[in-house]
Please model this.
Amino acid sequence: MVLAELGGSISRALQQMSNATIIDEKVLNDCLNEITRALLQADVQFMLVRDMKNNIKKIVNLEELAAGHNKRRIIQEAIYNELCKILDPGKPSFALKKGKTSIVMFVGLQGSGKTTTCTKYAYHHQKKGWKPALVCADTFRAGAFDQLKQNATKAKIPFYGSYTESDPVRIAVEGVERFKQENCDLIIVDTSGRHKQEAALFEEMRQVSEATKPDLVIFVMDSSIGQAAFDQAQAFKQSVAVGAVIITKMDGHAKGGGALSAVAATKSPIIFIGTGEHMDEFEVFDVKPFVKRLLG
Ligand code: GDP
Model:
């Protein structure tokens, strides 16, 4: 993950500042500019970086630094707090209750890893004693149902879909109904993606959402999306009530900064990250350990 390089760049900037005999405005600015550059290179959105820099300048007191306090630690702490603030929208996502039926709808662009992530999410909960089920309401991508069926079979999770029905709303409603009757407590609805943000995709999402009334809508985003992350996440949030985010492909060469943008744009927490193609390459996301790792 290239995001790890960010920690190295930030550490170097802090070290340079610590080495300076006098910490004045210029030394602090140079340090913050270095850090800003590193964050932008990691694909964190420009506006988030700018606000973060301004906040740190407000928090960090030059006189305190000059008085010989541990400069490196003071600034590092300010950066740590700011990054945590960006990644923590301040409210947790909807809490599922075991034994009580919850409907969770997955949305995202085609190729983001949505279908794979649906199964990972179901499998994760199944291991913890839930009774999940998968509904394939993706009638747009040829092979989507086969893929979901194959994954679900491997994980021994019940599934619902159709090779002939072309109305995703109908499939979603039928699937949800069936699994309610079978007393599943976690009904996961996989929706269609598109290669890019399109009006037709958003309209379809809205209709599936209206018909199935999900308790939680999860937005799945590929971590390699880069600077486009903010606009993409915002477009989804404007169409359906996104309540949580899952970032996929964190194992790849992605710079990962888009994760911060997705939280800012949807005001929703990241709940899991995908770290590989396999079913169990899936981790619960916690802000503090993530940022600690990020800063090296
Ligand atoms: P969808 O079109 O959004 O449903 O995407 P898919 O679930 O079909 O995933 C697209 C590709 O990304 C597939 O080849 C998946 O195996 C792969 N993929 C999904 N999640 C991850 C991940 O966390 N890491 C890696 N390396 N590959 C992933």
